[in-house]
Write a structure and sequence with these properties.
CATH superfamily of the largest domain: Spore Coat Polysaccharide Biosynthesis Protein SpsA, Chain A
Largest sheet: 9 strands, mixed
CATH topology of the largest domain: Spore Coat Polysaccharide Biosynthesis Protein SpsA, Chain A
Number of helices: 13
Shape: elongated
Number of strands: 9
Length: 331
């Protein structure tokens, strides 16, 4: 990212004082905090079978840093899921039920009840590795200036291979989301930004919206280049249902906004928020720059441009030789 623009973006984030604590539907209540401990929040809506796998993965990596696992049943109606949730509760997990209010509300419910200083959201169809509970916690404990730790992931399901996530760059985050919801962050950040947006017209980009607002409030991000979780690629996932595809695994040449009108509306919704005014300007400016660069590449590839360059080459060479000759003559 251009250093000047990066400095401006950083100053804007540090100076911003707008708060979402009065966001409709989000109540910020403070519970006792266990310093240095992690609360894992798992929303579940009719994903009972996959929830079992998610919990099994948590148990495999459980250590002294994990304080609790909170499962929020977001109004599941599937008989198998209801049965599994009951079994999970009987096994000692904390299961909280609420009417179906969508995933943002479910996550907010879980974080609101959490007692850990650090929050780790985990989708019920994903699996956890040990990186967050080891290196992630150590980073947050030893570096008070770091607010969010995120990692790479391993695909499973309908795609295999590693999801290599880039180092943090604010301009890149403004362009598109590259940080999954499964990232370890300080609960204080959730309180500062007012939690996940429960008013979004469709779910699927609530994590991007959350990270942008965290950045707006001066939150800092650190990338751990290790696999922190396994990401399930499904044709019926929430993001696919919302915009028609999963942008994380879509073709690189696909114009995501043009391919999904609903995605375009969600982006407009996110960047229409008051605290996003500067980010919106940056995004629009960047899009215009990219558009002009595209036009320039078309011109440079044209026959007339290449012919013009060829015709101008001899005069340029003569000017260069004349300058050298003149300098020698002056000496």
């Amino acid at each position: 990212m251009d250093s000047g623009l990066g400095k401006v973006l950083k100053q804007w984030g540090a100076a911003l004082s707008f708060s979402f604590r009065n966001m409709p539907g989000v109540q910020m209540t403070r519970t006792p905090i266990s310093e240095g401990k992690v609360s894992i929040i798992i929303p579940c809506y009719n994903h009972g079978a996959m929830l079992r796998e998610a919990l099994a993965s948590v148990e495999e990596v459980r250590n002294e840093n994990l304080l609790e696992v909170i499962i929020v049943d977001d109004g599941s109606s599937d008989a198998e899921t209801i049965r599994i949730l009951k079994e999970v509760a009987e096994a000692g997990y904390r299961v909280v039920s609420q009417p179906n209010c969508r995933v943002s509300a479910a996550r907010n419910t879980g974080v609101r009840l959490a007692n850990g200083e650090f929050i780790l959201p985990l989708d019920s169809d994903n699996r956890l590795r040990d990186v967050y509970l080891k290196e992630g916690v150590s980073l947050l404990k030893g570096n008070p200036d770091i607010g969010v730790v995120y990692t790479d992931a391993e695909y499973f399901g309908e795609k295999a291979g590693r999801w290599h996530v880039q180092e943090f760059d604010l301009l890149s985050l403004i362009r598109k989301n590259f940080i999954d919801v499964c990232a370890l962050y300080r609960r204080a950040l959730w309180e500062q930004v007012g939690g996940y947006d429960e008013q979004m017209p469709w779910m699927g980009l609530e994590d991007w919206d959350f990270w942008l607002r965290v950045a707006c409030h001066g939150g800092t991000f650190f990338h751990l280049p290790e696999v922190g979780f396994d990401y399930c690629v499904r044709a019926d996932s929430q993001i696919v249902k919302t915009i028609g595809f999963d942008g994380r695994v879509a073709r690189e040449d696909l114009n995501l906004v043009e391919a999904s009108p609903r995605l375009a509306k969600l982006i407009d919704y996110i960047f229409s928020k008051p605290e996003m005014a500067f980010y919106k300007w940056v995004r629009e400016t960047d899009e215009e720059v990219q558009r002009l660069r595209g036009q320039l590449r078309v011109v440079e590839a044209s026959y007339s441009y290449r012919l013009g360059r060829a015709l101008l080459t001899p005069p340029r060479l003569l000017r260069k030789l004349w300058r050298r000759f003149s300098l020698r003559k002056c000496k």
